[in-house]
């Protein structure tokens, strides 16, 4: 009797058959994405400090401290 192939087995086939180079490319892509997120956090923090004097003075942070919902500026 032949073994049956299930849908999850087929979904994992590309992952299981991926070469080391493919895995490294995926990891590089993930790391690049994290770098962009870090850049955005840095820019946002610097903007808040420059515009409001500190991150704590930003309207969204002030609203959350008062127990209200976040308010974008």
Polypeptide structure, described:
With 73 residues, this protein is mainly alpha-helical. The chain has a domain at 43-73. The protein is built from three helices and no strands. The mean pLDDT is 77.
Overall SS class:
mainly alpha
From the spread of the alpha carbons, the general shape counts as elongated
How many strands, what sense, and barrel or not for the largest sheet? none
Q: Low-confidence segments, ≥5 residues, pLDDT <50?
A: none
Q: Could you estimate the helical fraction of the residues in percent?
A: 55-70%
Q: How many DSSP-defined strands?
A: 0
> So how many helices?
3
Q: Kindly provide the radius of gyration, computed on alpha-carbon positions and rounded to a whole number of angstroms.
A: 23 Å
Strand-residue fraction?
Answer: under 5%
What is the terminal separation in angstroms? 66 Å
| Mean of residue pLDDT values | 77
Order of helices and strands: HHH
